Amino acid sequence: MSNEPPGSAPVTAGQVFDGAKRAIKIALVAAALGAALLVVGIAIDRTAFFGAYLTAYAFVVSTAGGALILLMSFHAMRASWPTAVRRLLEGVVGVFPALALLFLPLCFGLSRLYPWLHPERFAPDERRLVMHKLPYLNVPFFLVRAAVFLAVWAGIAWLLRRWSFQKDADQRAPVEDKLYRLSAGALPAVALTFSFAAFDWLMSLTPVWFSTMYPVYFFGGGFVAAIALLTIVTALAQRRGFLPEITESHYYALGRLLLAFIIFWAYAAFFQFMLMWMGNRPDEVIYYVTRWRGAWRAVSIVLVVGHFVIPFLVLLNYRLKRDGRWMAVVAAWILLLHYIDTVWLVAPAQRAQAFPLHWLDLGAVLFIGGVSIAAALYSLRGRPLIPIHDPRLVHALRYESL
Predict the structure, then answer these.
(1) Which of 47, 126, 330, 379 has its CA 20 to 30 A from that of 324?
(2) Which of the residues in the chain have pLDDT under 70?
């Protein structure tokens, strides 16, 4: 990342985002179609409904959470080049109020999702372990923690967006230090809440198994997905003429980030697997044994090859990382594999012997994804897609990387 001093004069004009009304309509139609599928699904199989809903929700939340951490990291580092694409991240993190509402359906399916609500179904040795965790794993405390997580993320995202938009309206608004202090100071809080959300919402699907590496793995996937999403929306915004100043150097910077954090995700995945396999304890390796049986073996192989080997080899190519169209294709592939990764984390706890994908997965993705896309686009309506008065913007638009 470049940390050169800001340019001598701020940009004072920028094309105002018209809200992409057609895209919002398409997203809402997709959400309506997804909702219809979910209504049918909840009447047929409520357990599958809540499993699919949790998978889609975790996919979107992890991506939005990764975007929030990425945005805060840019502010905390006071890096220059990300200023050119920062507003797009501010749109992504604008979905947290909608995600808070979208969490509500999960509140009615806890007993179908989480086995710790039924300790009597476990064998005696496992039951004692589950009972030991009940002071933490109980419905009231679970819901309080969820409310705290969502409030922290939504509150920080709201402040970052509010101060950034203030600078658009008033060139003299002293927001740079506020953005820096909030981002640097609140990163630990976001990291902790993200970690405990991973423990609560996903790892507790298998309450007799635990891993301290689990939230790192989950964060790594969400962070990679956030960079991939930023790459995609950057290419789309440039194609629509909103970001004509974006150059191949900006795509190259995004490509380097993607490559670095794909390696990070793979390291976290391998480190967790290696330690448990070397320990060879039945209560630990069962997590991976379950995901290596039947059709889940193919999913595991797809994740290794598709989420790491292929993107790693492709992103080693210097010229490809400087081509916005190819970078968007690679990023879309990575985003798809992050969803498969989320399925791999959630679904085996419910249907270890069944086919990995369920038709309700499509409905949940359409509904939650459609609502989230519409909310993100709507949150940027009437605003320029670049922070027009940011003192670093001139240098960001002139950014060059060899």
Answers:
(1) 379
(2) 1-14
